[in-house]
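During the second half of the funding period, the structural biology subgroup turned its attention to how the target accommodates small molecules. The most pressing case was zinc ion, which had performed well in the primary screen but for which no bound structure existed. We therefore specified the complex as follows and requested a full 3D prediction, including the ligand pose.
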Amino acid sequence: MTADKNYYTMDTQGNLKCLKCGVPLVKGKAKFMYLDNGFPVELPVCPICGFVYVPEELALGKVLSVEKALEDK
Ligand SMILES: [Zn+2]
């Protein structure tokens, strides 16, 4: 995997910023699509361009447990 996919940057305090717009990402409602389902999640999003920061653990498989939790209702 290459590491040049940087749409955000993190400052020393751990705050995420949109690299394109140069503004801090804000917590917002986002929809994480998995297969044919959209799961509502709260993630840092850019208020200007709408870029959604997806944490690696969410992108790399935690979505399976999200789906499980919904089925168990
Ligand atoms: Zn942006």
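Two results from this model are relevant to the next phase. The radius of gyration is 14 Å. Helices lie at 56-71.
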